Amino acid sequence: MKSDSFKVAAAAAVAAILVTVWYFRDVEPAPWSDEEIVLLQSLWIENLPDVPADPTNAVADDPQAAAFGQRLFLDARLSANGAVSCATCHQPARHFTDGLPKGTAIGTSKRNTPSIVGAAYSPWLYWDGRRDSQWAQALSPLEDPEEHGTDRRHVLDVIAADGDYRAAYEALFGPLPDLSVADEVTIDTAFANVGKAIAAFERTVLPTASRFDRYVAAVVTRDRESQRTLFSDDEVRGLRLFIGEANCMQCHNGPLLTNNEFHNTGVLSAVGEIPDKGRATGIVEVMQDPFNCQGSYSDDADHVCPELEFARSGPELIGAVRTPSLRNLEGTEPFMHKGQIATLAAVLEHYNEAPDAMIGHNEAEPLGLDGSELRQLEAFLGTLTAPYTGLGTRPGAT
Q1: Residue 372 dihedral angles phi and psi, to the nearest 5°
Q2: How far apart are CA 195 and CA 148, in angstroms?
Q3: Taking the domains of the chain in order of start, what are their residue ranges?
Q4: At what angle do helices 233-243 and 371-381 cross, to 10 degrees?
């Protein structure tokens, strides 16, 4: 008799659970509060300001410079083997990444290839911020033996030998110097101009509105029907976690979902490598770079360089790397500064656990989220994919 009573009770309990699950499966997420809407609007691409001016680059916003820079970006003749262009690693079809743990060109670079979409908004370039402008950054791969593997004279020789390139260069910067007699400063000035043209193109590569942005628009106008159409319940719950309990906005804030700062989040070193010192060495390198904001190749006669002047330094930056944008993550795996983590789900597991850092101190704290919540966060992050402006193929269904 006891056994029968137990079976009846157990069956009733299971039935109650099933009824509860059935009842709540169609219950809509609660409306957003005024405070939450303010947070959502802070992430909305509609609130992305105009691309900041770059006074160090006189042709930064010149359409002719952008057109010239786009051609240079795609030209493999600027490499030592004639087979590597900027687009070898920054592939338009992959949101200007390459799908590899580390960029591979003539050799293998030191870190994962970051996207250039929206990079014009960052005061620092590279994972360690070792360059302070897009044009200074554009010069580095050309002479890196693992990337283009060439030198500045070869780059200028290509431009001098191509009639269209020479004409484009001289329309922007004046006569191309005679490389057979030019001194070092003249050569370096012309080389800097090449970087400035490439940067003018890269400044046009910007994100556009994603499904998330359309959802925020529906939230702002209190359009509940559009909200239901645009986001699944899991995506809504993931967004609530993102702006709330998961504490993602501590670093991933603003319309590009990055604070463009440097943080140590305890990511393991790449296999077989010593821990990466990150920003601790990057800040030293950017200060010494002859093409930085304070250098003689800057077009800003006043050399107003607050980012350099007030840049953080010190032991707290050991192992810290730049916070990437969370827009357009789809198709850009593997993740992290050396491609150490293969999937977005594994990235979220990493932040959920917040392990001790191998070098420096992990700034993150364990989140304590369960598997369902992590899947909801991942679902939300998938809503941030969108086309971009600037060049040819624009990937990213919205």
Answers
A1: -65, -40
A2: 14
A3: 28-48+208-278+318-384, 63-202
A4: 100
DSSP state for residue 75 in the 8-state scheme: -
* Two domains, one topology: 28-48+208-278+318-384 and 63-202: yes
CA 69 – CA 72 distance, rounded (Å): 5
Residues pairing with 108 in the sheet:
104
For the chain, what percent of residues have pLDDT higher than 90? 87
Query: Measured on CA atoms in the order 129, 130, 136, 139, is the torsion positive or negative?
Result: negative
| pLDDT score of 2 more than 80 | no
CATH of span 28-48+208-278+318-384: 1.10.760.10
Question: Which tens digits make up the pLDDT trace of 168-196?
Answer: 999 999 999 999 999 999 999 999 999 99
**Mean predicted confidence (pLDDT) in 192-203:** 98
Q: pTM, whole model, 2 decimals?
A: 0.90
CATH classification code of 63-202: 1.10.760.10
Rg (CA), the chain: 25
Tracing tokens 């743990």 back to the chain, one arrives at 101
Closest by Cα among 135, 188, 165, 146 to 72: 165
